[in-house]
Design goal:
five-stranded parallel β-sheet; two-stranded antiparallel sheet; Rossmann fold; 311 residues; 2 domains; 13 helices; Helicase, Ruva Protein, domain 3
């Protein structure tokens, strides 16, 4: 087992990003669960810097793509280019061929570009004109979006949102944390200060260890009741899908591994449910118009509190 992995990653990322330990934990859980993450927050709350530092401390290749309204799918996945010397068309790989892809402001790209990511995110492969190319084994999309902008953006459809293992909301820092951020920025930040915490092959070993974490039959029955409760709640127009519950199990196993436990507990489920499930749910519009519910996360937390876990 890779010991104290969570603490090591937090320490290295903390050299350049202050007060984001919880967000770092969720990124690490998502990576070990072999999923993708949507970061939501206003500009200037260190989403991009966190992604860069996270990739560096794990020794992973990193690429950033700024999504814009005039992008084309080939700008992401690549395409065939004519080679003047060989007189043949050759496949030129796009930026998606990396370990961690930062899709910055993903909701600014048109739906055709967003859909180009779906196969890569789900199958970890890219198909262009009948030719299929495999992506790296640790491929992970970290997408960002600003929740406050409405002009020049294309809302992500439910099908694409469901491909994201987790949605992490970046709130403003507390007064104490912001004071530390300001102090840290008195000197120039350099991501190269972040050291690697994993050696060659250790990330593969960690992923294999996550697959060994036990999920009891009682926990599976609890998860089934939790899923059913979201589908029967009159305040929700769309409940959680089976894929969403599979993702929740994967994340719970990764969290247990990081806490150096060999089994999943109800606390793992309760801690991860908002990030894994909330973006897959949709409020009933009647409830929204009545103003009786503030947001979908509040409904989900109430459901999680209501459904009794196993003893």
């Amino acid at each position: 087992m890779v010991s104290r992995l969570k603490q090591k990653v937090q320490a290295e990322v903390g050299k350049v990003v202050v007060g984001r330990e919880a967000e770092v934990d969720l990124l690490l859980v998502s990576l070990l669960a072999k999923g993708h993450v949507l970061l939501e927050g206003v500009p200037g709350v260190s989403k991009t810097l966190l992604a860069k530092a996270f990739a560096r401390c794990l020794g992973l290749d990193f690429r950033r793509v700024q999504f814009t309204p005039d992008m084309l799918p080939l700008d992401i996945v690549g395409g065939f280019v004519f080679n003047m010397q060989s007189r043949e068309f050759q496949f030129r790989k796009g930026p998606v061929f990396t370990d961690i892809l930062l899709a910055d402001e993903v909701n600014r790209a048109p739906p055709k570009v967003q859909s180009a990511l779906l196969e890569a995110m789900q199958e970890r492969q890219v198909t262009v004109e009948g030719q299929t190319e495999m992506l790296p084994s640790h491929f992970m999309v970290i997408a960002t979006q600003n929740p406050l902008e409405f002009q020049g953006v294309y809302p992500l459809p439910e099908g694409q949102l469901d491909r994201f293992l987790m949605k992490v909301v970046f709130a403003y820092p507390t007064k104490e944390v912001e004071a530390r951020v300001l102090k840290r920025n008195l000197t120039e930040l350099d991501v190269s200060d972040v050291g690697e915490v994993l050696g060659s092959g250790e990330l593969d070993l960690a992923v294999k260890e996550v697959d060994k974490v036990v999920v009891s039959d009682e926990m599976l029955e609890y998860l089934s009741r939790l899923a059913e409760a979201t589908r029967e709640d009159n305040r929700l127009d769309l409940g959680v899908s089976p894929r969403g519950m599979v993702h929740l199990i994967q994340c719970a196993r990764a969290r247990a591994f990081l806490d150096e436990r060999g089994y999943v507990t109800p606390d793992d489920i309760k801690a991860l449910a908002p990030g894994v499930l909330a973006h897959r749910l949709r409020l009933d519009q009647k409830v929204v118009l009545q103003g009786t519910v503030s947001n979908v996360t509040a409904v989900l937390q109430e459901i999680v509190h209501r459904v009794k876990p196993p003893r």
